[in-house]
Write a structure and sequence with these properties.
By secondary structure, the protein is mostly helical. 63% of the residues lie in helices and 0% in strands. The protein has nine helices and no strands. The chain is globular and about 50 Å long.
Amino acid sequence: MTAVLAPAALALGDDALTLSHRLGEWAGHAPALEEDVALANIALDLLGQARVLLTLVGDEDELAYLREERAFRNLQLVEQPNGDFAHTIARQLYFSTYQHLLYGQLASGDGVFAPLAAKAVKEVAYHRDHAEQWTLRLGDGTAESHRRMQQGCDALWRFTGEMFQPVEGVEADFQELHTAWQTSVAAVLERATLTVPDGPQSGAWAAGAGRQGLHTESFGRMLAEMQHLHRSHPGASW
């Protein structure tokens, strides 16, 4: 892996690893048994992607469990706490729509990420559909589910702009990606009787420096939990 491609593999791998852990936190806590299984399956898909990407850079276990917080290059969006179920679905809608579009572009090329993207885009299509169906169900459901879904969309909107900042080594048209993402998300929210948030996606009031290793407070706590067992028993084998 070249010096240019390694940061790209870390960025994409850390996105998948972090969101996988967040979704795994729902195990035993989802609002229905079926959702326990669905979210766990999505988490496992993302973990599989993370393993492939991190292995391109080095030892996957060391990269996942021994790096310090500032060495992670994931988007701030994927590290946000689960909140309630609607908040999790809003996060999943935003990210899976982005990831599906990104992997679609990468799969159509001949770069180093094309084989992974060609396989992952099929998985992510399910992730995206799952998020869309729940957005519609909650947004166009009861007054309470509508309120919570809108609240989740509004709270996470400021983290979405970072997805469209070019990543060195990722051969994608990020401007085209942004336009397609906005169109897709807006269509889903409209069908769900939700309002597209009007806050900025970039600029002074937007968030997003995860690619530079700057993370939100909740990420440090999540990382401590994720890395605890490995760090407590260095060199252990199972």
